[in-house]
Specification:
Helix content: under 10%
Strand content: over 45%
CATH topology of the largest domain: Immunoglobulin-like
Largest sheet: 6 strands, mixed
Number of domains: 3
Order of helices and strands: EEEEEEEEEEEEEEEEEEEEEEEEEEEE
Length: 265
């Protein structure tokens, strides 16, 4: 009796997954064929055959079985999905808040979940194409005191498997703790002079802003980073007299206005 297959499950997946084939006349099956590639069955009954899906080229393969008499069944289509890869993130750095992130890579069309390391799963998953998707990164929990950054692997789960972890640096996202200012030296200065700012997480600084206490025009100050706890900033020559609050902006956000960050001109 020639074998006949009626269903395969799954109909799309990747290597290493067990496939179940149902039909009739399957009791003497010796091979399961994925196009031109054959594997031995893991179990055989007259109506069911199981096997482990081999590594295939992405795309459709026709699945059939061959019995001990050399008779081959009809075939059913199976879609092999290659494993996902993450090749780039935009942005790749950000604050501890939940922010939108675009993920780029390969074989992303069947994405069901995107995880940011141990921080947790992303939300608002939207698959754009096989090479891109968008998510909202999960918010980072409060940082341990003294820790300013946390770099995590962005891991994508699809019908083709799970992207690598640890992955390349191009698939990593870095959370930044918010900066704080703890002291200034001196606390009174003249336009064009230097002020040393002390604080925490003063890393990868984007801007140093001088805001008049009570409101008014803000000013940008040039700066030199000394360490994650110290920068030197030069007050603008055109800075009017008054009391100002210094704020530091980094990928982790902007430092709050506090008395420790205020000085007079």
């Amino acid at each position: 009796m020639a074998p006949t297959i009626t269903t395969i499950n799954p109909t799309q997946s990747h290597n290493g997954v067990t496939m179940t084939i149902t039909g009739t006349g399957l009791g003497t099956t010796v091979r399961v064929n994925f196009g031109g590639l054959s594997v031995s069955p893991a179990s055989v009954t007259s109506v069911t055959v199981t096997c482990v899906i081999p590594q295939l080229c992405p795309g459709q393969s026709n699945v059939s079985v061959t019995n001990a008499a050399g008779q081959t069944s009809n075939s059913l289509p199976f879609f092999y999905i290659g494993p996902p890869q993450v090749t780039a993130l935009s942005p790749a750095i950000g604050s501890a808040a939940a922010v939108p992130v675009s993920v780029y890579g390969n074989n992303l069309l069947t994405t069901t979940e995107v995880d940011f390391g141990d921080v947790g799963p992303a939300t608002n998953l939207t698959v754009v194409s096989s090479s891109s998707l968008t998510v909202v990164a999960p918010a980072h929990p409060p940082f341990t005191p003294g820790v300013c950054t946390d770099t995590v692997d962005v891991i994508v789960t699809t019908a083709g498997g799970i992207s690598g972890s640890p992955g390349p640096s191009s698939s990593q996202y870095t959370y930044y703790n918010a900066p704080t200012i703890t002291a200034l030296s001196p606390s009174s200065a003249t336009p064009g002079s230097d002020v040393t700012v002390f604080g925490t997480c003063l890393m990868d600084i984007i801007a140093v802003t001088l805001t008049p206490v009570g409101g008014g025009q803000t000013y940008q100050s040039t700066f030199v980073s000394i360490s994650p706890s110290q920068i030197d900033t030069v007050l603008p020559l055109t800075l009017p007299r008054g009391t100002y609050a210094i704020q530091i902006t980094t990928p982790g956000g902007q430092s709050p206005i506090t008395p420790a960050g205020q000085f007079t001109v």
